[in-house]
Amino acid sequence: MSDTVYIEYRFTVKPKEPASDLLIAELGNVGFESFVEEEDDVLAYIQKTDWSENILENVQILDNPRYSFTHDYKEIEQENWNATWEQNFQPIIVDDVCMIRAPFHEKIKVEYDIVIEPKMSFGTGHHETTHMMLQHILQLDVKDKTVLDMGSGTGVLAILAGMRGATTIDAIDIDNWCYLNAKENVERNNMDFISVYEGDAALLKGKKYDLIIANINRNILLADMPKYVQSLNSGGVLLLSGFYTEDLDMITQKCVDLELKFEKNLERNNWVAAKYVN
Fold it and tell me: What confidence tens digit (pLDDT) does each residue in 193-228 have?
């Protein structure tokens, strides 16, 4: 992976909220893998092999007259990524009990101290969807449960489930870099019992879980939900995020069609993380 070349886009966004979140969501849908938010700018990264000069043609928010966008881009070698995120990645604390930090951050006394090195993977806890999924997991009793983290990114959600007592945990991501990064972070947090896999929902065949966590995007959730439900034990919990408030009814209807029951949802800056039970 050391010779992987990324394209770094720098977008200046005015006003920044909520435009930056909407921009990040649309960029994710066209292949951008990772983002860093600065005071006025959004940095977005895509592998050069997945990039084309017209990559932004279908990013509709750039044409929205309510917001002003300017951008430029350049090539960046993957090994330069660490320096980029170290300059920008700040530790976060979720509900006063869970800290997500990098190895170079000072440790403070919290119940759950998670150390991750995100590199090019999604899931530092800064994005609303990851933050809310962490909150959901903190509210659940996962002791001795079997857990699936689908679209695991850095593996941070699987790691928190492990710290809270889950005994069998699978983390799956289709992206090779996320797969490798999650393996590193699992080892870094002494969670050797978390199994990390590279692939998609096809890997779920014949497997059963008490809790399934899927923080991906609306279209993948809708397509793969039948496989999630097939893999969910009776009385099991399905946590879904990666979509907007306006998509909640559509997601919930799909779950109801699959005989799941909506229990509650969290909202943060128009993003949603919903809980369903089997």
Answer: 999 999 999 999 999 999 999 998 888 899 999 999
CATH pick for 120-277 out of 1.10.10.10, 3.30.2130.10, 3.40.50.150, 3.30.230.30: 3.40.50.150
- Which ranges of 40-155 does DSSP label H, i.e. alpha helix? 81-88, 128-139
**Cis before residue 226, ω within 30 degrees of 0?**
no
Q: Is the pLDDT of residue 2 over 80?
A: no
Give yes or no for a contact between 147 and 209, defined as CB atoms under 8 angstroms apart.
Answer: yes
Q: What is the pLDDT of residue 174?
A: 86
Q: Is the pLDDT reported for residue 5 higher than 70?
A: yes
Any binding-site annotation on 173? Answer: yes
Is 80 marked as binding a ligand?
Answer: no
Element (H, E) at 64: none
64 is in an annotated binding site: no
Fold adopted by 5-85:
Alpha-Beta Plaits (3.30.70)
pTM of the entire predicted model: 0.76
SS3 222: helix
Please calculate the CA angle 53-37-16 and round it to the nearest 5 degrees.
90
84 is in an annotated binding site: no
